């Protein structure tokens, strides 16, 4: 398929989708770099080998998976022309995104309660990596929530329908990406010591 063919709207759609994928690929590369550094650093003598992730991180993982499902249901409702169900599922996704972030901070508090801070004399290189990876991911979830708010606003302005969904689809793709990314990060931090 020639990328220069089609209407201006089709070209615009392809360009925006491609830009999103370039961004996603660069995020993948960044997180792969941090997880690679985590693996290399795990050979240090001061590395914590017997640390268990806080339960709040498991809860946040379940929440973010459910939020992806609710976004899928919102998209399905939009395609079926059911505006009220679309609204409901978008709001559920937004709330679950907030619950995810809340649980992440609960997890940080559980780490602090164990005596490990991000920096200072009570810090540890293992915990510093966990803080860094989780905080950078939280920042991307915040970006996802902002995208979701824009989608909700545009949905209320009736800018989307079953034939016009570009912004909705871009936000959904990013949301699913950050969800999958967290599942990968959680499993990585859980199993790699």
UniProtKB/TrEMBL annotation:
Coiled coil: none annotated. It is found in: Cell membrane; Membrane. It is a multi-pass membrane protein. Residues 1-193 form the Heme-copper oxidase subunit III family profile domain. The chain crosses the membrane at residues 20-41, 53-74, 86-108, 128-153, 174-192. InterPro entries: Cyt_c/ubiquinol_Oxase_su3, Cyt_c_oxidase-like_su3, Cyt_c_oxidase_su3-like_sf, Cyt_c_oxidase_su3_a-hlx. Its main location: membrane. It is an enzyme of class 7 (translocase). Its EC number is 7.1.1.9. The keyword Translocase applies. The keyword Membrane applies. Belongs to the cytochrome c oxidase subunit 3 family. This is cytochrome-c oxidase.
């Amino acid at each position: 398929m020639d990328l220069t063919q089609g209407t201006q709207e089709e070209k615009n759609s392809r360009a925006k989708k491609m830009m999103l994928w370039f961004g996603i690929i660069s995020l993948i590369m960044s997180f792969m770099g941090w997880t690679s550094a985590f693996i290399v650093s795990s050979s240090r003598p001061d590395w914590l080998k017997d640390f268990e992730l806080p339960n709040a991180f498991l809860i946040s993982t379940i929440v973010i998976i459910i939020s992806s499902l609710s976004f899928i249901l919102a998209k399905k409702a939009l395609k079926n022309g059911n505006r009220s169900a679309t609204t409901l599922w978008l709001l559920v996704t937004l709330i679950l995104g907030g619950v995810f972030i809340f649980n992440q901070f609960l997890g940080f508090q559980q780490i602090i309660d164990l005596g490990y801070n991000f920096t200072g004399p009570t810090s540890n290189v293992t915990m510093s990596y966990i803080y860094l990876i989780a905080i950078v991911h939280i920042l991307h979830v915040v970006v996802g929530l902002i995208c979701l708010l824009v989608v909700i606003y545009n949905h209320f302005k009736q800018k989307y329908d079953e034939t016009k969904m570009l912004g909705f689809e871009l936000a959904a793709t990013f949301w699913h990406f950050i969800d999958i990314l967290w599942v990968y990060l959680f499993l990585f931090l859980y199993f790699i010591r």
